[in-house]
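Good morning C.,

I know you're traveling, so I'll keep this short. The sequence:
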Amino acid sequence: MRRPHMLFAWAAAALAALILVGCSALAPQANSPAPQPNSPAPQVAPEVSAAPTDTQPPPTPEPQATAAPPAETAPVLPPANRVLNILLLGSDQREGQTGPWRTDVIMWVTIHRDEKAVGILSIPRDLWVSIPKVGENRVNVADYFGEALKYPGGGPALVADTLKNNLGLDTDRYIRLNFEAFERVIDAMGGITVDVDCPIEDKFIDDSAPGGFRLLKVPAGRQVMDGKTALMFARSRHGRGDIDRTRRQQRVLMGIRNRALDVGMIPRIPRIWAALKDSVDTNLSLQEVLSLALLAKDIAPEQIHSRVIDYTMVRDWTTPEGAMVLLPDRAKIKDAIAHLMDGAPLMEASAFPGTCPD
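The tokens, ready to paste straight into the viewer:
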């Protein structure tokens, strides 16, 4: 991950994003291996058809991820542009890691200034897409390949171009952080309150825990979570897999947003800044940050709308190599995007539509 300069502007950018819409919970999957890079073809990948092809990029030596740091300032959106689209990326990349990592949280956030409204679209990590310069693969490897292949604009730009080509989503800015930063931010905030629709019991690989596993047991109802618990809650595939997990991530996001707007959060700003300054990568300018911070206080919870690309918009498919992925129905997804701001507010959306899973 490219390191932002250790300036207040970049820490403030991340903090403003937290205040406005929260930050995405990072959801590395403990029990599956990191993606191994397939060799990218030198040409731009063709438009994805409804059915997958069996052609996969041939293997090559693993590229090393190197990228220039973001510029000190980013261009400010002109006043006439009243809609700002931000890509929130959460990866399982660890400190100093240059090998393959996964961006297991991808949220596209559209901010409508005049309407004082926000729309959030969660994109499942297993969505099978055409990635420029790479070919067909899971969407969660686009960030890594963007860095490894020195794609113009790096990983976030390749993710943005992938979403544009496959789903028609336009992106103006991005914010990217890893799960270690996520834990630190939650703890610096003093924890968050999350509405849990269905009880969850799961376990995660954790070398620091007795027996090498850490148990997650969360009852239904309003629950206060520290950083580690919130991360496990967002990581869990309890229920119906990847898509239910994206719904839980949105619940965590709402908890962060609500906590960030608490008047008691002001004394904690130095701790939050310390938690973010080395771990956040963004191209938001300081001017944009200030604008978003002023807007945040005027956005009511019922004006934060959300959608998840769910099983009505995808179908399961197993690649010739045995990977289980989700094939998108592009027409249905684009229709959901078109009606994103008409959907139920995030605070009313259930993380488990229907009955609770076993």
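Safe travels,
E.
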